[in-house]
Amino acid sequence: MLAAQDPSQVQAQIESQIRAQATSQPGTEPTLKPNPLDTLRNFEPGADEEYRLGKGDEIAVDFSGRPDMLAKLIVGPDGRISLPLAGEVMLADLTRTEAAKAIESALANYYTNLAVQVTVTKYTANRVLLLGAVEHPGTLTFDGTPTLLEAITRGGVAPGTNPSQAGQVPERCAIYRGNNQVVWVELRELMESGNTLADLRLRRDDVVYVPSMSERFVSVLGEVQHPGAIPLTHNSTLASVLAEAGGITDHAGNNPHIQIVDQATGVSRVLSLKDVLNPVKSLEVTLRPGEIVFVPKSGFYRATYVLERLSPLVTVASMAFYAGVL
Questions:
Q1: Which residues contact 173 (CB under 8 A, 6 or more apart)?
Q2: How confident is the model at residue 319 (pLDDT cuts 50, 70, 90)?
Q3: How far apart are CA 11 and CA 2, in angstroms?
Q4: Which of 169, 225, 245, 320 could disulfide-pair with 220, CB 3.0 to 4.6 Å?
């Protein structure tokens, strides 16, 4: 339908949508390409962000004036601890202060004027998963806030990854957070320029992926069993890539609209799962290295939603275009 229109009419329509979007968001001006450094700064947790307890953390619970009640406990796999009288108390994702108040509240029916202090004696929940072209891939545990360079240094650059830079930091890496966030870090460039974002702070359960120089892969995010990087081969198809990610989850619905986002250009392609499973139509889909394959939750299939969540390089014009088309 758009192809049949006059190009000037299409351009005018897009510009009109851009102006409407700018008007609906007073005080902000549309930018064609957000600064990648700003993307990293927004991705990085605050320097003063408090630690939150996680599964497996060992804690000491001290009751002021009641040394007989001192307890050393481990946060269980369900995020709870077990206390005499009070029973189970959920502590996962609470700060130490919040955890102390939760314990005070749980024991309020049995003790009066309790003052509780929670101390982390061993951090085991503060984990980052390091994968890809490193000598020692796997789960890394940190006593303090994990950082990117610390994770990569502990993993070591795999021999032969880049002969001219053997033993040094990789050129770039990807950080996956949850099932719907990924950012690329031009690590060597940041280090050579002295930018502190080269050692940006990570969050618990982040996945750091270091590609080899010769590796080609796409990122699969959203409602799949195992989100992350999937290598591309000469016979890779969208269906095979989704299968390597463990398949889609029940939250995706019966026929999700799968988006393929090219971060370099902001261009998005949308296909239904039925088309992906159709052998003829599936072969027509060519995946390019660096693209993001996103399986949205049922009911959130609009391209504007995906572009806003995934691509830091999307232009306002392309967002307006896809909003109009879909």
A1: 132, 148, 152, 184, 185, 187, 208, 209, 210, 211
A2: very low
A3: 11
A4: 245
Rounded Cα gap, residues 308 and 320, in angstroms: 11
User: Cβ distance 70 to 57 under 8 Å?
Assistant: no
Q: 């880049």: which residue's tokens?
A: 162
Query: In angstroms, rounded to a whole number, what is the distance separating the alpha carbons of residues 143 and 153?
Result: 16
Average pLDDT over residues 39-62: 90
Tokens for 46, please give them.
């605050």
Range with lowest mean pLDDT among 41-55, 67-81, 180-194, 268-282: 268-282
Tokens of 312: 């830091």
Q: What is the pTM of this model?
A: 0.64
Integer Rg of the chain from CA: 24
CB-CB neighbours of 95 under 10 Å: 15
Note whether 248 and 224 are within 8 A (CB): yes
Mean pLDDT within 184-190: 88
How open is the CA angle 252-247-173, to the nearest 5 degrees?
100
Q: CA angle 234-275-229, nearest 5°?
A: 45
CA pseudo-torsion sign 136, 137, 141, 147? positive
Q: Look at strands 257-262 and 292-295 and give their pairing.
A: antiparallel
Give the count of beta carbons closer than 10 Å to the beta carbon of residue 77.
Answer: 9
Tokens read off for 220? 């699969």
| Angle (CA) 266 31 37, round 5° | 80
Compute CA distances 46 → 54, 98, 199, whole Å: 19, 19, 13
DSSP structure class, residue 134: B
